[in-house]
Amino acid sequence: MVSAADSMSTANPPEQILADDGIPLKQKLARTTRRARIKAFLLTVPLLIFLIVTFVIPIGQMLTRSAHNPTVSNVLPNFAVAIKSWDDSASEYPEESVFEAFVKDLQAARKNREVGKTIGNVAVRTNYEIPGTASLFKSTGRKAKNIEEGPYKQALFELNKKWENPLIWKTLKRIASDYTPSFYVAAIDRTYDADGNIVEKKQELQIYVKIFWRTLWLSALITSICLILAYPISYLLSVLPLKTSNLLMIMVLLPFWTSLLVRTTAWIAILQSNGIINNVLVWANIIPDDFRPQMIYNQTGTIIAMVHILLPFMVLPLYSVMKTIPPSYMRAARSMGGSWFYSFRKIYLPQTLPGVAAGTLLVFILAIGYYITPALVGGQDGLLISNLIAFHMQSSLNWSLAAALGTLLLLVILVLYWLYNKFVGVDNLKFG
Known about the structure:
Elements: H1 4-11, H2 25-65, H3 71-75, H4 77-82, H5 96-112, H6 119-129, H7 134-143, H8 152-159, H9 166-175, H10 182-187, E1 190-192, E2 198-200, H11 208-239, H12 242-253, H13 260-271, H14 276-283, H15 299-322, H16 328-335, H17 340-368, H18 372-377, H19 385-394, H20 399-423
Antiparallel strand pairs: 1-2
Helix pairs in contact: 2-20, 6-7, 11-12, 11-15, 11-17, 13-15, 15-17, 16-17, 19-20
Protein backbone atom coordinates (compact mmCIF):
# COMPACT_ATOMS: atom_id res chain seq x y z
CA MET A 1 0.00 0.00 0.00
CA VAL A 2 1.16 3.55 -0.73
CA SER A 3 1.46 5.72 2.34
CA ALA A 4 -0.18 9.12 2.59
CA ALA A 5 3.18 10.89 2.60
CA ASP A 6 4.21 9.10 -0.61
CA SER A 7 0.99 9.96 -2.34
CA MET A 8 1.29 13.58 -1.34
CA SER A 9 4.89 13.81 -2.59
CA THR A 10 3.83 12.22 -5.87
CA ALA A 11 0.90 14.51 -6.30
CA ASN A 12 2.83 17.65 -5.35
CA PRO A 13 6.45 17.40 -6.58
CA PRO A 14 8.88 19.88 -5.03
CA GLU A 15 9.17 23.13 -6.92
CA GLN A 16 12.42 23.83 -8.81
CA ILE A 17 14.71 26.51 -7.46
CA LEU A 18 14.97 29.32 -9.97
CA ALA A 19 17.73 31.85 -10.50
CA ASP A 20 17.11 35.57 -10.80
CA ASP A 21 16.60 35.29 -14.57
CA GLY A 22 13.99 32.54 -14.18
CA ILE A 23 16.22 29.66 -15.34
CA PRO A 24 16.29 26.60 -13.06
CA LEU A 25 19.34 26.76 -10.84
CA LYS A 26 20.39 23.16 -11.62
CA GLN A 27 20.29 23.84 -15.37
CA LYS A 28 22.21 27.09 -14.98
CA LEU A 29 24.86 25.41 -12.83
CA ALA A 30 25.32 22.67 -15.45
CA ARG A 31 25.66 25.30 -18.17
CA THR A 32 28.24 27.25 -16.17
CA THR A 33 30.25 24.07 -15.47
CA ARG A 34 30.21 23.17 -19.17
CA ARG A 35 31.47 26.63 -20.13
CA ALA A 36 34.26 26.38 -17.55
CA ARG A 37 35.35 23.03 -18.99
CA ILE A 38 35.36 24.42 -22.53
CA LYS A 39 37.48 27.39 -21.42
CA ALA A 40 39.90 25.09 -19.61
CA PHE A 41 40.18 22.90 -22.71
CA LEU A 42 40.82 25.91 -24.95
CA LEU A 43 43.65 26.97 -22.65
CA THR A 44 45.30 23.58 -23.11
CA VAL A 45 44.86 23.49 -26.90
CA PRO A 46 48.28 25.11 -27.65
CA LEU A 47 50.02 22.56 -25.42
CA LEU A 48 48.01 19.74 -27.01
CA ILE A 49 48.98 20.87 -30.52
CA PHE A 50 52.62 21.18 -29.44
CA LEU A 51 52.61 17.62 -28.05
CA ILE A 52 50.96 16.23 -31.18
CA VAL A 53 53.42 17.97 -33.53
CA THR A 54 56.61 17.32 -31.55
CA PHE A 55 55.81 14.01 -29.85
CA VAL A 56 52.90 12.00 -31.24
CA ILE A 57 53.58 12.54 -34.96
CA PRO A 58 57.37 11.81 -34.76
CA ILE A 59 56.76 8.63 -32.76
CA GLY A 60 54.07 7.61 -35.24
CA GLN A 61 56.47 8.19 -38.13
CA MET A 62 59.15 6.16 -36.34
CA LEU A 63 56.77 3.25 -35.78
CA THR A 64 55.67 3.38 -39.42
CA ARG A 65 59.15 3.69 -40.93
CA SER A 66 60.44 0.74 -38.89
CA ALA A 67 58.18 -1.63 -40.84
CA HIS A 68 57.24 0.35 -43.99
CA ASN A 69 59.83 0.58 -46.74
CA PRO A 70 58.37 0.85 -50.26
CA THR A 71 61.71 1.42 -51.99
CA VAL A 72 61.48 -1.58 -54.35
CA SER A 73 57.84 -1.02 -55.26
CA ASN A 74 58.51 2.68 -55.92
CA VAL A 75 61.44 2.06 -58.28
CA LEU A 76 60.36 -1.30 -59.77
CA PRO A 77 56.55 -1.25 -59.54
CA ASN A 78 55.74 -3.88 -62.18
CA PHE A 79 58.44 -6.22 -60.93
CA ALA A 80 57.23 -5.87 -57.32
CA VAL A 81 53.77 -7.02 -58.37
CA ALA A 82 54.97 -9.80 -60.68
CA ILE A 83 57.42 -11.45 -58.25
CA LYS A 84 54.74 -11.88 -55.56
CA SER A 85 53.19 -14.71 -57.61
CA TRP A 86 56.47 -16.67 -57.70
CA ASP A 87 56.60 -19.76 -55.48
CA ASP A 88 60.26 -19.72 -54.45
CA SER A 89 59.95 -23.15 -52.80
CA ALA A 90 58.91 -24.82 -56.05
CA SER A 91 61.41 -23.30 -58.49
CA GLU A 92 64.90 -21.87 -58.26
CA TYR A 93 64.17 -18.78 -60.37
CA PRO A 94 61.04 -16.75 -61.17
CA GLU A 95 59.15 -17.02 -64.44
CA GLU A 96 60.34 -15.27 -67.61
CA SER A 97 57.63 -12.63 -67.19
CA VAL A 98 59.17 -11.61 -63.87
CA PHE A 99 62.59 -11.14 -65.48
CA GLU A 100 60.97 -9.13 -68.26
CA ALA A 101 59.26 -6.83 -65.75
CA PHE A 102 62.55 -6.48 -63.86
CA VAL A 103 64.55 -5.44 -66.94
CA LYS A 104 61.91 -3.03 -68.21
CA ASP A 105 61.54 -1.42 -64.79
CA LEU A 106 65.32 -1.00 -64.62
CA GLN A 107 65.29 0.71 -68.01
CA ALA A 108 62.42 2.99 -67.00
CA ALA A 109 64.08 3.90 -63.69
CA ARG A 110 67.33 4.65 -65.50
CA LYS A 111 65.50 6.91 -67.92
CA ASN A 112 63.26 8.78 -65.45
CA ARG A 113 65.62 9.21 -62.46
CA GLU A 114 63.02 10.75 -60.20
CA VAL A 115 64.06 11.82 -56.72
CA GLY A 116 63.87 8.82 -54.39
CA LYS A 117 63.05 6.46 -57.26
CA THR A 118 66.46 5.59 -58.67
CA ILE A 119 68.22 2.27 -59.05
CA GLY A 120 70.66 3.43 -56.40
CA ASN A 121 67.87 3.36 -53.82
CA VAL A 122 67.11 -0.27 -54.65
CA ALA A 123 70.83 -1.04 -54.57
CA VAL A 124 71.15 0.39 -51.06
CA ARG A 125 67.99 -1.40 -49.87
CA THR A 126 69.20 -4.76 -51.20
CA ASN A 127 72.66 -4.17 -49.81
CA TYR A 128 71.13 -4.07 -46.31
CA GLU A 129 70.05 -7.68 -46.83
CA ILE A 130 72.95 -9.00 -48.94
CA PRO A 131 76.14 -6.95 -48.50
CA GLY A 132 77.98 -6.41 -51.77
CA THR A 133 74.97 -6.29 -54.08
CA ALA A 134 74.88 -2.50 -54.45
CA SER A 135 77.46 -2.49 -57.24
CA LEU A 136 75.57 -5.30 -58.99
CA PHE A 137 72.40 -3.22 -59.27
CA LYS A 138 74.20 -0.07 -60.30
CA SER A 139 76.20 -1.76 -63.07
CA THR A 140 73.15 -3.66 -64.31
CA GLY A 141 71.15 -0.43 -64.36
CA ARG A 142 73.69 1.10 -66.71
CA LYS A 143 73.83 -1.94 -69.01
CA ALA A 144 70.13 -2.84 -69.03
CA LYS A 145 69.44 -0.40 -71.86
CA ASN A 146 71.26 -2.82 -74.21
CA ILE A 147 68.67 -5.56 -73.58
CA GLU A 148 66.07 -4.97 -76.28
CA GLU A 149 64.30 -8.35 -76.43
CA GLY A 150 64.01 -11.64 -74.65
CA PRO A 151 64.75 -14.10 -73.32
CA TYR A 152 65.34 -11.60 -70.51
CA LYS A 153 66.48 -14.17 -67.98
CA GLN A 154 69.35 -15.33 -70.15
CA ALA A 155 70.26 -11.76 -71.14
CA LEU A 156 70.41 -10.74 -67.48
CA PHE A 157 72.65 -13.69 -66.59
CA GLU A 158 74.98 -12.77 -69.44
CA LEU A 159 75.29 -9.21 -68.12
CA ASN A 160 76.53 -10.47 -64.75
CA LYS A 161 76.91 -14.02 -63.46
CA LYS A 162 75.92 -12.88 -59.95
CA TRP A 163 72.28 -12.82 -61.07
CA GLU A 164 72.40 -16.62 -61.18
CA ASN A 165 72.43 -16.64 -57.37
CA PRO A 166 68.89 -17.72 -56.31
CA LEU A 167 69.33 -15.98 -52.93
CA ILE A 168 69.17 -12.58 -54.66
CA TRP A 169 65.77 -13.33 -56.18
CA LYS A 170 64.38 -14.73 -52.94
CA THR A 171 65.56 -11.62 -51.15
CA LEU A 172 64.02 -9.37 -53.81
CA LYS A 173 60.69 -11.14 -53.38
CA ARG A 174 60.81 -10.56 -49.63
CA ILE A 175 61.73 -6.87 -49.80
CA ALA A 176 59.37 -6.13 -52.72
CA SER A 177 56.57 -5.89 -50.16
CA ASP A 178 56.01 -2.41 -48.74
CA TYR A 179 55.76 -3.76 -45.19
CA THR A 180 58.54 -5.95 -43.89
CA PRO A 181 59.84 -7.20 -40.51
CA SER A 182 63.39 -7.28 -41.87
CA PHE A 183 64.60 -4.30 -39.86
CA TYR A 184 63.26 -5.71 -36.59
CA VAL A 185 64.96 -9.00 -37.47
CA ALA A 186 68.24 -7.13 -37.97
CA ALA A 187 67.71 -5.14 -34.75
CA ILE A 188 67.72 -8.35 -32.68
CA ASP A 189 70.84 -9.70 -34.43
CA ARG A 190 68.97 -12.11 -36.67
CA THR A 191 68.92 -12.57 -40.44
CA TYR A 192 67.28 -14.69 -43.14
CA ASP A 193 68.92 -17.83 -44.50
CA ALA A 194 68.64 -19.18 -48.04
CA ASP A 195 65.29 -20.84 -47.22
CA GLY A 196 63.81 -17.67 -45.73
CA ASN A 197 64.08 -18.83 -42.13
CA ILE A 198 65.12 -16.40 -39.39
CA VAL A 199 68.48 -17.45 -37.93
CA GLU A 200 71.15 -15.88 -35.73
CA LYS A 201 73.83 -13.78 -37.33
CA LYS A 202 77.46 -14.78 -37.05
CA GLN A 203 78.89 -14.13 -33.61
CA GLU A 204 81.15 -11.33 -34.79
CA LEU A 205 78.16 -9.53 -36.38
CA GLN A 206 75.93 -9.60 -33.28
CA ILE A 207 76.10 -6.12 -31.79
CA TYR A 208 72.62 -4.74 -31.11
CA VAL A 209 71.41 -7.12 -28.40
CA LYS A 210 74.74 -6.82 -26.62
CA ILE A 211 74.57 -3.03 -26.64
CA PHE A 212 70.91 -3.14 -25.52
CA TRP A 213 71.97 -5.09 -22.42
CA ARG A 214 74.92 -2.75 -21.91
CA THR A 215 72.58 0.25 -22.08
CA LEU A 216 70.23 -1.21 -19.47
CA TRP A 217 73.10 -2.22 -17.19
CA LEU A 218 74.93 1.11 -17.36
CA SER A 219 71.69 3.06 -16.92
CA ALA A 220 70.82 1.03 -13.81
CA LEU A 221 74.37 1.44 -12.44
CA ILE A 222 74.40 5.20 -13.09
CA THR A 223 70.99 5.54 -11.43
CA SER A 224 72.20 3.59 -8.37
CA ILE A 225 75.34 5.72 -8.01
CA CYS A 226 73.30 8.92 -8.36
CA LEU A 227 70.93 7.70 -5.62
CA ILE A 228 73.79 6.84 -3.26
CA LEU A 229 75.42 10.24 -3.78
CA ALA A 230 72.25 12.32 -3.86
CA TYR A 231 70.57 10.93 -0.72
CA PRO A 232 73.00 12.38 1.86
CA ILE A 233 73.32 15.60 -0.16
CA SER A 234 69.55 16.05 -0.21
CA TYR A 235 69.29 15.25 3.50
CA LEU A 236 71.95 17.82 4.31
CA LEU A 237 70.18 20.45 2.22
CA SER A 238 66.89 19.74 3.98
CA VAL A 239 68.20 20.10 7.55
CA LEU A 240 70.62 23.00 7.16
CA PRO A 241 69.52 26.58 7.78
CA LEU A 242 67.83 28.21 4.81
CA LYS A 243 70.72 30.58 4.05
CA THR A 244 73.28 27.76 3.95
CA SER A 245 71.02 25.33 2.08
CA ASN A 246 70.27 27.93 -0.60
CA LEU A 247 73.99 28.44 -1.16
CA LEU A 248 74.56 24.70 -1.49
CA MET A 249 71.54 24.37 -3.79
CA ILE A 250 73.16 26.93 -6.10
CA MET A 251 76.21 24.66 -6.22
CA VAL A 252 73.96 21.72 -7.12
CA LEU A 253 72.23 23.69 -9.89
CA LEU A 254 75.43 25.26 -11.20
CA PRO A 255 75.98 22.52 -13.83
CA PHE A 256 72.64 23.46 -15.41
CA TRP A 257 74.11 26.87 -16.22
CA THR A 258 77.01 25.32 -18.12
CA SER A 259 76.81 23.81 -21.58
CA LEU A 260 76.54 20.01 -21.67
CA LEU A 261 79.29 19.90 -24.29
CA VAL A 262 81.61 21.98 -22.07
CA ARG A 263 80.99 19.73 -19.06
CA THR A 264 81.64 16.60 -21.09
CA THR A 265 84.84 17.86 -22.70
CA ALA A 266 86.05 18.99 -19.26
CA TRP A 267 85.93 15.37 -18.13
CA ILE A 268 88.12 14.44 -21.09
CA ALA A 269 90.79 16.83 -19.78
CA ILE A 270 90.39 15.52 -16.24
CA LEU A 271 90.31 11.76 -16.91
CA GLN A 272 92.81 11.32 -19.74
CA SER A 273 96.16 9.59 -19.18
CA ASN A 274 97.94 12.93 -18.78
CA GLY A 275 94.97 14.53 -17.11
CA ILE A 276 94.61 16.13 -13.69
CA ILE A 277 93.66 12.98 -11.75
CA ASN A 278 96.46 10.83 -13.14
CA ASN A 279 99.03 13.60 -12.67
CA VAL A 280 98.00 14.04 -9.03
CA LEU A 281 98.17 10.29 -8.39
CA VAL A 282 101.65 10.12 -9.92
CA TRP A 283 102.79 13.24 -8.04
CA ALA A 284 101.58 11.74 -4.73
CA ASN A 285 103.43 8.46 -5.52
CA ILE A 286 100.17 6.53 -5.33
CA ILE A 287 100.74 4.98 -8.76
CA PRO A 288 103.89 4.76 -10.90
CA ASP A 289 104.13 6.89 -13.99
CA ASP A 290 104.10 3.82 -16.26
CA PHE A 291 100.79 2.49 -14.88
CA ARG A 292 98.40 5.38 -15.34
CA PRO A 293 94.82 3.96 -15.39
CA GLN A 294 92.73 4.47 -18.49
CA MET A 295 89.64 6.36 -17.29
CA ILE A 296 88.42 7.84 -20.57
CA TYR A 297 87.05 6.41 -23.84
CA ASN A 298 85.62 3.41 -21.99
CA GLN A 299 82.74 2.53 -19.67
CA THR A 300 84.49 4.21 -16.74
CA GLY A 301 84.47 7.56 -18.52
CA THR A 302 80.82 7.12 -19.50
CA ILE A 303 79.77 6.33 -15.93
CA ILE A 304 81.70 9.21 -14.34
CA ALA A 305 80.57 11.83 -16.83
CA MET A 306 76.92 10.75 -16.84
CA VAL A 307 76.74 10.56 -13.03
CA HIS A 308 78.02 14.14 -12.88
CA ILE A 309 75.46 15.30 -15.45
CA LEU A 310 72.44 13.43 -14.04
CA LEU A 311 73.11 13.88 -10.32
CA PRO A 312 71.03 17.10 -10.00
CA PHE A 313 68.01 15.27 -11.43
CA MET A 314 68.21 12.91 -8.44
CA VAL A 315 68.91 15.61 -5.84
CA LEU A 316 65.94 17.84 -6.66
CA PRO A 317 63.12 15.26 -6.20
CA LEU A 318 64.75 13.92 -3.03
CA TYR A 319 65.23 17.39 -1.57
CA SER A 320 61.68 18.45 -2.37
CA VAL A 321 60.32 15.44 -0.43
CA MET A 322 62.80 15.58 2.46
CA LYS A 323 62.09 19.27 3.00
CA THR A 324 58.49 18.42 3.91
CA ILE A 325 59.42 15.83 6.58
CA PRO A 326 59.41 17.43 10.06
CA PRO A 327 62.70 16.78 11.96
CA SER A 328 60.61 16.16 15.08
CA TYR A 329 59.65 12.71 13.77
CA MET A 330 63.19 11.41 14.09
CA ARG A 331 63.66 13.10 17.47
CA ALA A 332 60.46 11.52 18.75
CA ALA A 333 61.58 8.09 17.59
CA ARG A 334 64.96 8.51 19.25
CA SER A 335 63.36 9.72 22.48
CA MET A 336 61.27 6.55 22.62
CA GLY A 337 64.38 4.37 22.66
CA GLY A 338 64.95 3.66 19.00
CA SER A 339 68.48 3.65 17.67
CA TRP A 340 69.44 6.10 14.93
CA PHE A 341 69.49 3.41 12.25
CA TYR A 342 66.21 1.85 13.42
CA SER A 343 64.52 5.26 13.52
CA PHE A 344 65.86 6.10 10.10
CA ARG A 345 64.72 2.79 8.61
CA LYS A 346 61.26 2.81 10.16
CA ILE A 347 60.39 6.52 10.25
CA TYR A 348 62.46 8.61 7.84
CA LEU A 349 63.24 6.30 4.92
CA PRO A 350 59.61 5.29 4.16
CA GLN A 351 58.62 8.95 3.92
CA THR A 352 61.37 9.64 1.36
CA LEU A 353 60.43 6.71 -0.92
CA PRO A 354 58.21 8.88 -3.19
CA GLY A 355 61.22 11.12 -3.86
CA VAL A 356 63.47 8.09 -4.37
CA ALA A 357 60.98 6.63 -6.85
CA ALA A 358 60.68 9.91 -8.75
CA GLY A 359 64.44 10.47 -8.87
CA THR A 360 65.33 6.93 -9.98
CA LEU A 361 62.68 6.92 -12.68
CA LEU A 362 63.76 10.32 -13.99
CA VAL A 363 67.49 9.53 -14.00
CA PHE A 364 67.05 6.06 -15.50
CA ILE A 365 64.88 7.32 -18.38
CA LEU A 366 67.37 10.10 -19.11
CA ALA A 367 70.36 7.75 -18.92
CA ILE A 368 68.91 5.11 -21.22
CA GLY A 369 68.47 7.67 -24.01
CA TYR A 370 71.72 9.66 -23.67
CA TYR A 371 74.04 9.69 -26.67
CA ILE A 372 76.15 12.90 -26.64
CA THR A 373 78.17 12.06 -23.53
CA PRO A 374 78.81 8.37 -24.42
CA ALA A 375 79.79 9.44 -27.94
CA LEU A 376 82.45 11.82 -26.60
CA VAL A 377 83.89 9.89 -23.65
CA GLY A 378 82.66 6.31 -24.10
CA GLY A 379 84.85 4.99 -26.89
CA GLN A 380 83.84 1.54 -28.16
CA ASP A 381 83.15 0.04 -24.72
CA GLY A 382 81.00 2.90 -23.46
CA LEU A 383 78.65 3.36 -26.39
CA LEU A 384 74.90 3.00 -25.78
CA ILE A 385 72.11 1.94 -28.12
CA SER A 386 71.23 5.60 -28.71
CA ASN A 387 74.64 6.07 -30.32
CA LEU A 388 73.87 3.32 -32.85
CA ILE A 389 70.49 4.89 -33.58
CA ALA A 390 72.21 8.23 -34.22
CA PHE A 391 74.79 6.48 -36.43
CA HIS A 392 72.12 4.93 -38.66
CA MET A 393 70.26 8.23 -38.85
CA GLN A 394 73.26 10.40 -39.70
CA SER A 395 75.94 8.19 -41.27
CA SER A 396 74.61 4.94 -42.74
CA LEU A 397 71.24 6.60 -43.57
CA ASN A 398 69.46 3.35 -42.75
CA TRP A 399 66.51 5.17 -41.21
CA SER A 400 64.31 2.08 -41.10
CA LEU A 401 66.82 0.19 -38.96
CA ALA A 402 67.25 3.26 -36.75
CA ALA A 403 63.46 3.43 -36.39
CA ALA A 404 63.30 -0.29 -35.50
CA LEU A 405 65.99 0.15 -32.84
CA GLY A 406 64.19 3.22 -31.50
CA THR A 407 60.90 1.34 -31.38
CA LEU A 408 62.48 -1.55 -29.48
CA LEU A 409 64.03 0.94 -27.05
CA LEU A 410 60.61 2.55 -26.57
CA LEU A 411 59.05 -0.86 -25.90
CA VAL A 412 61.75 -1.69 -23.35
CA ILE A 413 61.10 1.60 -21.55
CA LEU A 414 57.34 1.02 -21.56
CA VAL A 415 57.79 -2.50 -20.13
CA LEU A 416 60.10 -1.20 -17.41
CA TYR A 417 57.65 1.62 -16.69
CA TRP A 418 54.83 -0.93 -16.38
CA LEU A 419 56.88 -3.04 -13.98
CA TYR A 420 57.81 0.08 -12.03
CA ASN A 421 54.16 1.06 -11.77
CA LYS A 422 53.18 -2.48 -10.73
CA PHE A 423 55.68 -2.79 -7.88
CA VAL A 424 56.25 0.85 -6.84
CA GLY A 425 53.23 2.73 -8.13
CA VAL A 426 53.44 5.85 -10.27
CA ASP A 427 50.85 7.50 -8.03
CA ASN A 428 53.44 7.47 -5.23
CA LEU A 429 55.88 9.63 -7.19
CA LYS A 430 56.52 13.11 -5.82
CA PHE A 431 58.58 15.83 -7.48
CA GLY A 432 57.78 18.42 -4.86
